[in-house]
Amino acid sequence: MSELIEWAYPLAESLLAQALPRRWKHCLGVAERARTIALVLGKDAELLEAAAILHDIGYAPDLAKTGFHPLDGARYLRDVAHGDDRVTNLVAHHSCAWMEADARGLREELEREFPRESAPLSDALCFCDMNTTPDGTPTNPIDRINEITGRYGPDSLIGTFIRRAEPEILACTSRVLERVAHAKSQPM
Fold first, then answer.
1. Virtual CA dihedral for 147, 130, 167, 98, nearest 10 degrees?
2. Sign of CA dihedral 153, 154, 160, 164
3. Whole-structure pTM value
4. What is the tens place of the pLDDT at every residue in 76-87?
5. How distant is the alpha carbon of residue 69 from its chain centre?
6. 103 near 160, Cβ under 8 Å?
7. Which class for 150: exposed (0-12), middle (13-18), buried (19 or more C-beta within 10 A)?
8. Angle of helix 21-36 relative to helix 3-16, nearest 10 degrees?
């Protein structure tokens, strides 16, 4: 196990396991999804797993400052935990965060403070998040989007954002599945 992974898991656990046990289960499930697609990420596989376990730390009560968890989590990773820049950027931009930031009037701040990572890594984290239930079990992005819409309400900021993001979430999932299928078809 790499130093990055050894750092990320206990940090996420310390922020989420007691305060938000269901969110912690979700993050564990997202990290498990990351391990299942590691073959398409090469040297970035551990980076994705670290971002996966940390992606929702911005929900932790002590970290929630703006109410926008990707930004709150990324700021904590940068300013307090002194985390890896790439992991921090992935957390800041996970799962089409720019669209929600736009709806909250925070897009300029988000993009000024945290550059986006490569499309394959961003796609991979979105895939992992949107193919994992709140309880950490595998799902598909359609059911996940429906669950989010149902939990927050279709007319809420989150419900509206997730429906707006749906085509991109489905496209991310498709791109990742194509990469996985291609990698599995290659001779060893």
1. 100
2. positive
3. 0.96
4. 999 999 999 999
5. 10
6. yes
7. exposed
8. 160
